[in-house]
Amino acid sequence: MREELLNFLTQRGTLPEPKAIDYLLSFENPLDYLSSLLNHFEEKPLILTLEEIRRVEAIAERASIEAKGRAQLKPEAVQSKLLEIQKEAPAVPEHFIKEPKEVVRLRRRKEIVAREYGPELKILKDITGKSTSRGKMEDFQRYFRNRFQTMQRMLLSRRELGGCVEVSKAKKLSREVCFICIVNSVKSTKSGHKILEVEDETGTASVLITKTSPLINDWIVPDEVVGIRGSPGKDDLIIAESIVHPEVPINKEFRKAEVSVSAAFISDVHVGSKSFLEKKWSAFSQWINDGEDLAKEIKYLVISGDVVDGIGVYPRQDEDLLIDDIHRQYEEFAKLLSSIPEWIKIIVLPGNHDAVRPAEPQPAIPTSLRNLFSSDVIFVGNPCYFQLHGVEILSYHGKSIDDFVSTVPSMTYSRPLEAMKEMLRKRHLAPTYGGKTPIAPEEEDYLIIEKVPDIFVTGHVHGFGMENYRGIRLINSSAWQSQTSYQKMRNIDPVPGKVPIVNLASGEFFLKEF
Ligand SMILES: [Fe+2]
Ligand SMILES: [Fe+2]
């Protein structure tokens, strides 16, 4: 009969603890009793414990008393057997020590908070399906007009820029002037000063930053939009006295989710590369499936680009590839994602190694590749601005960090958060056109950081960082690839296998390392 009870339960996806079986066997017809008892469970139990049986019996008894006016459901022999089992039970029951792995896994799953809530994902801004760029001259003019006008609006809300005039008017005034402009070029003179060539829709001007001015250390890059306050100097030059960047507020309040669920952030999986760290990924996958500690609240997994290694992305890449077919690389990646538990919503962005156009904003990977994945995986563009349980997230692969590192002397690949802070200060993900980051001239500039996010995440540099900056959670989300020969040549030292996690209800940061 023990065997029959076990079969009956396991066929229904329920694992009984031995004490529960002992108890059921004390009934004259254990199977009949069990099936009538199961009718009183609110939902099918994963693990059937004696405690759970007692809880449900109490409910059933109460219902029976109310219905029939009698208290005793079970014969006296069963009551005394129950007392016996409870009395004999050791302080640490043996079956708990010997609890099979499967039972442990299922018991933990029962405690997983993230399973109790459905996903609440809203895409707020994404180029996917909206690209109109043909790369013609008029597209560029339209793109830069949109960039200037949008950023001008943002800058005009700054108190320091009250009373601003147009550039053509500013050049004619003999008093202190203030204007908003786009920087065409930044040049250093032999004597150590800097000259900015700037313009707005009405004209151009030359702005001098003297070498003794504190502004000399403010790293202005071509194509960014700034506010300038200055005074007229010799030869039509305007001498800069202050430069205003759009910036983010000093202390932004975190929009809190109403329930305690978390988002985990990873990127740069580089499936298909010989250096893909399979063991680290397996450990991560095991951990997230076990649903232990931090994992039990993870409702979202955001993957910020370079999910596969791609083909022909850098010179002699074929020597580093284990899988030299892009379709098969995505098939492998789909297999990896299929091991992530079904209660976790996965959001995937492309990066510069993925099978989409390299120019940013990049659309989501094509449908032919998306079809390899379960419908639970959401593919978005790069960058993407979205909302998870009310918390707003800006996710960007981070290619422009290459530009910051190569042009700003204080920036390094080992400190990617510094470049991210500069993006926030300039309110633009890739301010310089024509650098290492290819940009598609779309009708509107998707790379402007128009809204201030609660979480700003990048990847790309295979480093790692997390920090609270002015109330914004900044994350650079590690990698799953060890150092390649190309990275060695470029002095990039990866920090793989780190998983930053943000609790969306509190904004707290956590880190899990593999
Ligand atoms: Fe990468
Ligand atoms: Fe990348």
Characterise the protein shown here.
The protein is an alpha/beta fold and 514 residues long. The chain has helices at 2-11, 18-25, 30-38, 50-68, 76-88, 94-97, 101-110, 137-156, 167-170, 278-290, 326-338, 367-370, 401-407, 416-426, 485-489; strands spanning 15-16, 47-48, 121-125, 177-188, 194-200, 203-209, 225-232, 237-244, 262-266, 298-304, 345-349, 377-379, 384-388, 391-395, 455-458, 464-469, 472-477, 498-503, 509-513. The strands form four sheets. It has a six-stranded mixed sheet, with helices on one face. A six-stranded mixed sheet has the order 12-11-10-9-18-19, with no helix packed on it. The longest helix is centred in the first third of the chain and has 20 residues, at 137-156. It is elongated. The two termini are 46 Å apart. Residues 69-73 and 90-97 have low confidence and may be disordered. It binds fe (ii) ion (2 copies).
Q: What are the key terms here?
A:
514 residues; six-stranded mixed sheet; elongated; binds fe (ii) ion
